[in-house]
Amino acid sequence: MGVSITITDNEFPISPVFVDYVATVIEGREFAASEWHDQLSEALSNQQAEVLQKAQENAAKVMESELGKRFVARAYELFLALLAGDAAKIRDIQFRFHFINIIGVPRNGGSYLTKELYRALGFEADKVPNVIAHDGFPEASPFLFQPKVNSWVTSLQTMAEFLTMIEHYFGKRKPHSGKIQVPKKLTKGSYAGGFFHRVLGESVEHILTVRHPVTSCISTYEKSGGLPEDGRFRVRSNIEEWVRRDLAYTGVDNESIAAMDYFDAYLRYWEQYHYYIATTGLSANRNVEVVAYGEERMKNLARSFFYRYNNPQEPEAFQVFDKRDRHPGWFDAAHAAIDRVAAVWQRVRPVAAEVGAEVGVDRGLEGRGETAEVGRRGAPHRAPGDPPLGVGRALLAG
Length: 398
What we know:
The protein is of the alpha/beta class. It has helices spanning 16-26, 47-53, 55-63, 66-84, 88-96, 110-120, 130-133, 151-170, 193-200, 213-223, 238-249, 254-259, 262-279, 295-308, 331-352, and strands at 97-103, 145-146, 149-150, 180-185, 205-210, 288-292, 373-374, 380-381. A four-stranded parallel beta sheet has the order 4-1-5-6. Strands 2-3 form a two-stranded antiparallel ribbon. It is globular, with a radius of gyration of 21 Å.
């Protein structure tokens, strides 16, 4: 057939964050100091708003530059390759780069591990751009179809832009074990596990962080401005918007969400997220490690990064604050959700165990040495002082 299809940036405009990255490069500026790795700050970042405000101005600068045009052309080349399933076009990226993805619900220690990976590799974490290191890009989410939005296509295009930036940012870095290492906090990876697994390459490495939903919820509302006075769910931050979006995806209308108890809404989100981990293709990966939230476990894993990359430095402290007593009434509902997630994860076990992703969850207590991990290639291992593991189960930190 002789059908010819023309697409333009009217149908598929480039992303503001990609434009911002390219504009920074062509102007020879250093990337703005980033606070994506700040574990203690509860302040909400306004960096994204600034990027959006400057998008039109930056786009003009990009298209006036030959270097900028090459960036854009490469992003569209990769986008069309992903759109058409042209695997050969991305094979070089898969051979050159080893992606290490930190995946888990927000406020589960992923930023800390991502930062320590960058430090172990010799980077100054506050100079690594948010779009490169953190969890906002590329896009993946429950399916959305509305005027000018097809979330599946958005995932393809933002992945193409991400890979274009990766080629530039890491392209001259020294390989380790034959490949250039690329750490990424990939919170959104749970929504399209198979997509990230296949596009980033069969050797992609996943580190899954897990935390008890009660303390995870407390950390979330603290990050978002505190628990609302009436105890009802409100959207004030990106994390809370993801909670609303994921509930809406399953048919809960906005009015009902606004009437929900804060923890009830959060717990539904937490539960759904962990179902996605088990069911969207992440478990097909041969290189999966699960780490339960806790000071000793997080720091031990971070220390292994420095050993792995022959870096004599020590990891920074991982801060844990015990706030379990704040909401004792939340635990019964939380444990019921944990049990349901455990059942689903164990159901995946017959297949997952063959490829090193045997995972399970149980009830644990944060910061008291009562949790354990499931290690790489499915071999359960315990930290000193941890209780014996149940069959195929790793304790979920509280």
